[in-house]
Design brief:
alpha+beta; single chain
Length: 327
């Protein structure tokens, strides 16, 4: 039996209209699954699988060290509304996450335990949770920590938390992010489209409001994903949502509407158009289509697609995309 029991949260994320969107964590039911990968190969073939984690944990007494990792030896890799993610000394295969809420559960344990969580994306590393560590807290309660697959690459764009700030530092970060993606080869986008389709078909939703959930690995020239924790709520393809994030979403739109220096804005537009061109080419090659999701609507209502599509009105853009067989 593999147990899913990540705490249920209500997380607020802002979009351009400043309306709040609520997301509920998905891992809240116990699930019986075969202990194998989606492709039929043994899970142990994946060096970041639970099977490999269990073997490594037994050799290193990992579960006895989780508190020490969180409070002393682990390096903070990410910090947000829901919690902090820490490096695990001695391995680059997994990371440890402690939630700000839900880090204690109503469950009595007599000893520490490492418990498997179903890998919903066995063919693709999206930084998914594969296990939890339960530590007796006394009485009928236990502390809980989560183990995620380590993801490689550097985060894209300007973090959502400071996307309202049009500063020299954020502009530099924005343009550099666009430059890296725009200069990446077509194969980067071809694989990205396939990966988006795979995650969507698995039934899960990208968190596209924050570009920091998308990473670019210069060594492999691949776009990687993290923070995919929610079941997809609507029947949409998510290509437009991911394109919004890759273009640096909220900051890009705020920046394009600002009174900043025209020359740097023109550079950002040129780089964005190259990203859009390669993204569209990958979609056409794979016969993929956009759906009108929340963030894609924000993108259509902005000026970021104007030059590529040769029009400014949202309905005209949609019609142009239909002519291109992209909707």
């Amino acid at each position: 039996m593999i147990i899913n029991n990540i705490p249920k949260f209500t997380i607020q994320s802002k979009n351009l209209s400043r309306n709040k969107i609520q997301y509920n964590s998905y891992l809240n039911n116990d699930i019986f699954v075969k202990n194998c990968s989606f492709s039929g190969k043994s899970e142990s073939k994946d060096e970041k699988s639970f099977a490999e984690l269990k073997k490594w944990a037994e050799k290193t007494s990992f579960i006895d060290k989780v508190e020490d990792i969180v409070y002393r030896t682990g390096r903070i890799l990410g910090s947000g509304f829901e919690g902090k993610t820490y490096s695990i000394p001695g391995t680059n295969n997994w990371v440890l996450k402690k939630y700000n809420r839900g880090d204690i559960i109503a469950k009595k344990n007599d000893r520490r335990s490492l418990i498997q969580i179903r890998d919903f994306s066995p063919r693709l590393n999206v930084g998914q949770t594969i296990a939890r560590v339960e530590v007796p807290a006394g009485g009928d309660y236990s502390y809980v920590y989560y183990v995620l697959k380590y993801q490689t690459g550097n985060s894209i764009g300007v973090p959502l938390s400071i996307a309202d700030t049009i500063s020299d530092g954020n502009i530099k970060r924005h343009i550099e992010s666009l430059r890296i993606l725009a200069s990446s080869p077509q194969k980067t986008f071809d694989k990205c489209i396939k990966d988006i389709d795979y995650v969507t078909k698995q039934g899960y939703e990208f968190d596209c409001c924050n570009p920091y959930n998308f990473m670019y690995d210069k060594e492999t020239q691949e776009i990687h994903f993290v923070d995919i924790n929610d079941i997809k709520r609507n029947d949409y393809t998510q290509f437009g949502e991911v394109l919004y994030a890759l273009l640096d979403g909220e900051f890009a739109i705020n920046y394009s509407n600002s009174d900043c220096d025209v020359s740097t804005k023109n550079e950002a537009n040129k780089l964005s158009n190259e990203i859009i061109r390669k993204f569209f080419a990958a979609m056409i090659q794979s016969n993929s289509k956009f759906s009108l999701g929340t963030y894609f609507n924000n993108l259509l209502e902005s000026s970021l697609l104007d030059e590529t599509l040769g029009c400014t009105d949202k309905e005209d853009k949609i019609n142009k995309l239909r002519l291109m067989n992209l909707i």
